[in-house]
Every structure is written in structure tokens, then in C-alpha cells.
Design brief:
- Helices cover about 60% and strands about 15% of the residues.
- By secondary structure, the protein is of the alpha+beta class.
- It has a three-stranded antiparallel sheet with strand order 3-6-7.
- It starts with a helix and ends with a strand.
Length: about 200
């Protein structure tokens, strides 16, 4: 479109130049017809009209080009918003589904820690294997356990259910973890760690 407009502008300017050249030759007006004294005025008027038309076309072109740029920017913003919205919906879905499985993961970990299971038992080995595979699946989904014990208490990550006086620990240090917490992409907490905090 820009090439067509440029070409049309050049053609109009060329016809104006040709008109001007027939009017003057070395500074003198050439009268091909002696009976048409008003011809230079007529040609000047035509040239002026052509200039006006060219100016209007350039203004139309600039307005359309400006509108096209604004529409392109709006579309780009829409595309970015849509992408962010899709990511947010996906993140919410992952967190929602995983939160439903956390109780199962907790029970598997409790089964592994149960002292009444024999070390040589195939059952304990099988439960261990399932537990490891579950953690691997969570890691592939960018979900990892929240580190708690020995870390400073953070209300964004931890849920304090008990306080304990412990001289071996500084204030607001997590002394014990009752229930493991999980975080998604290092920013979205799926479940807070349930902890005991030292005073």
C-alpha cells in the first residue's frame, strides 16, 4: 500500500513538473496558442488542485498508517494478556489437583516412617518406591517441598501451630515441622508448612 501511495505521489509531482516546464522555458512563458492567455492560470489551478489532492491523500495515508499501528499494538497487548491468562488458569489447575493428592503423599510418607514395617519387607520397599516416584512427578511439575526446619519463620510459607522455648535456637526459627508444605514455581504456595516455632 505504501509503494502504491508513493508511486501515485511521484506521478502527480511529475505531471506538475511537466506542467510547470511547458509554462516556462528559461524563465519565459511560452504561448503555443496566442488566443489562450488564460492557459497558464488554468494550468496553475490544475497544479494547485493536484497538490491539494496529493496533500489529502498523504493525510489519509498517515491516518490509516497510524490506525494500523495502533491496532497492531492493541492486538499485541491482547495476545500477551491472553497468554498470561492461560498460564494463570493452568497454574490454578495444577495447584488445585496437586492439593487434592497431598493427603495421599502424606500417608505414603507416614507409611515409610512407620517403625512396625520390617526393613527387609518388600512392602516397605514398594511404598518407598511409590513415594520417590510421587516426589519426582511433583518436581517435573515444578512443585517442591517448602524447607522449614532451621529456617526463619515466614508467614508466607509457614503456618505456626505451636511455640516452644528453646535456647539452642534463635527467635522465630522453625524448630519442628508437623506437616510438609509445597510450593509451585517458587512463588505459589499450594499448602503452608505446619510448624513449631522457637521463641
Amino acid at each position: 500500500m505504501m509503494d502504491k501511495e508513493t508511486k501515485a505521489s511521484e506521478e502527480i509531482l511529475q505531471s506538475i513538473d511537466e506542467t510547470d516546464n511547458t509554462e516556462t522555458g528559461n524563465g519565459n512563458v511560452t504561448n503555443e496558442n496566442t488566443d489562450s492567455d488564460d492557459r497558464p492560470d488554468k494550468e496553475k489551478n490544475e497544479a494547485e488542485e493536484l497538490r491539494e489532492k496529493l496533500k489529502k491523500k498523504e493525510e489519509e495515508y498517515n491516518a490509516l498508517f497510524d490506525r494500523m499501528q495502533r491496532l497492531a499494538a492493541e492486538y499485541d497487548n491482547f495476545r500477551k494478556r491472553t497468554q498470561k491468562e492461560k498460564e494463570r488458569i493452568y497454574d490454578d489447575a495444577v495447584c488445585d489437583v496437586v492439593s487434592k493428592f497431598l493427603a495421599v503423599i502424606d500417608n505414603l510418607e507416614r507409611a515409610v516412617q512407620a517403625s512396625d514395617m520390617d526393613e527387609s519387607s518388600g512392602l516397605k520397599e514398594g511404598v518407598n518406591l511409590v513415594c520417590r516416584q510421587t516426589i519426582e512427578v511433583l518436581e517435573k511439575l515444578n512443585i517442591k517441598p517448602i524447607e522449614a526446619v532451621g529456617k526463619p519463620f515466614d508467614p508466607e510459607l509457614h503456618n505456626a501451630v505451636m511455640h516452644v522455648e528453646d535456647e539452642n535456637l534463635d527467635d522465630n526459627i522453625v524448630a519442628e515441622e508437623f506437616q510438609k508444605g509445597y510450593i509451585y514455581k517458587d512463588e505459589i504456595v499450594i499448602r503452608h508448612s505446619m510448624v513449631k516455632v522457637a521463641n
